[in-house]
Amino acid sequence: MVTPGGEVAFVKRMIKESLALRERVGWYTTMLGKLSSVSTIVEVLREIGLQNWAVTEFVQGTKTRRWAVGWSWGDMHPRMDVARRITGLPKHLLPFPSEFAFHVSSAPPDEVRGRLDTALKDLPLNWQWQHAQATTGVGFAKQNVWSRASRRKQHGSSDAGTRGDERAQDVGDEEEVAIGFKVQIEGAKETDGSEVRVRWMKGKDTVLFESFCGMLKRKVTTMMMQNDS
């Protein structure tokens, strides 16, 4: 109401300032009074090449609504129920889904936990459960260590100690992490199977996250099928 060009012009100025400040600020956020302004602002963010943003709406009573947009030049991702909590926005303007889920039939969480643990510990990455009996764990990798090319490179190592050294290095400098993820296993509500949820916490490569999720699903489901046979 007090800025020439209204709220869109005001937030565009914020975006321009964020181009200079970059990661000196973790997240830039703003509330907006019009849903149409959200679409305009997200389009501007996409045009400048930014890939990490969030949108949400606030509902007060039965009629009053406000909207918010947040963006970051960093690689930490909020939960999907936070970053995509909005109605009426075109699908292509929503941020990339930071969560992936798959179902494992006829297997309780404890059994899936063992198979998933085996699959991840076989890779040169940093992986650990939150505690000894937890069904939630966190992992980090510096690169794609599950591709065929990476596996061939691992098998070409002189001995198992080489892989151990690689894993130890992955525990180190967090700034070099290419992907950070959280895995949670829950009992399925309507079947005797389990639900595995993978959340993308850190990273900038959407293809890498999709590749990791696909690999994890294949490994776990294949292990379960072999176990059944």
From TrEMBL:
UniProtKB keywords: Methyltransferase, Transferase
GO molecular function, one term: methyltransferase activity
InterPro entries from the UniProt entry: METTL16/RlmF, SAM-dependent_MTases_sf
Pfam families: Methyltransf_10 (PF05971)
Chain residue ranges for the region called Disordered: 149-173
Record-level GO BP terms: rRNA base methylation
Protein's UniProt keywords contain Methyltransferase: yes
GO annotation, cellular component aspect: nucleus
Family matches, as PANTHER family: RNA N6-ADENOSINE-METHYLTRANSFERASE METTL16 (PTHR13393:SF0), SAM-DEPENDENT METHYLTRANSFERASE (PTHR13393)
Name under which the protein is recorded: Uncharacterized protein
Phylogenetic placement of the source organism: Eukaryota, Fungi, Dikarya, Ascomycota, Pezizomycotina
